[in-house]
Amino acid sequence: AAVGLSALSAPAQQKISEHRVSYAVQHPPTAFLPVVAGTDGLLHADTLRLLWTIAHRQGTAAMAVRDGCTEEAVYGDPVFHRLRARLFRSCRARLGRKALFAGAARYASFS
Questions:
Q1: What is the rounded distance in angstroms from the CA atom of residue 26 to the CA atom of residue 34?
Q2: pLDDT in tens, 9-42
Q3: pTM of the model
Q4: 3-state DSSP assignment of residue 101
Q5: What contacts 24+ positions apart, CB below 8 Å, involve 92-100?
Q6: Could you give the CA distance from residue 87 to residue 93 in angstroms, rounded to a whole number?
Q7: What are residue 76's phi and psi, to 5 degrees?
């Protein structure tokens, strides 16, 4: 039998409330962002955009420190583009691997 969304909303809200308290007491405050991935390790488009933003910020900061310039000045540099792509691929591979292992562990616990 199919489970309606209303049956899932109360447990989900309880879980969110419990985690919200633990995030609020940390200094500096920590935020929670769900990462959507399939059990086969494929990442959702929003997750990929987040990883691209992280890679962009890390690459921009690293290149600005290396070159001794502002972060805006590195955008046209081909070295920056390669660094950003490498950082993105690395983040995507690590997160995809973790999602794949989490899916496999969850599947193994049901067997």
A1: 19
A2: 777 778 778 777 776 777 776 666 677 777 666 7
A3: 0.63
A4: helix
A5: 92/43, 92/48, 92/51, 95/35, 95/37, 95/43, 95/47, 95/51, 96/37, 96/41, 96/42, 96/43, 97/41, 99/35, 99/37, 99/38, 99/39, 99/41, 99/43, 100/39, 100/40, 100/41
A6: 10
A7: -85, -5
- Cis check: omega of the bond before 28, within 30 degrees of 0: yes
Cβ–Cβ under 8 Å, residues 35 and 24: no
Structure tokens given for 62: 């690293």
- For residue range 67-82, list pLDDT tens digits in order: 888 878 788 888 889 9
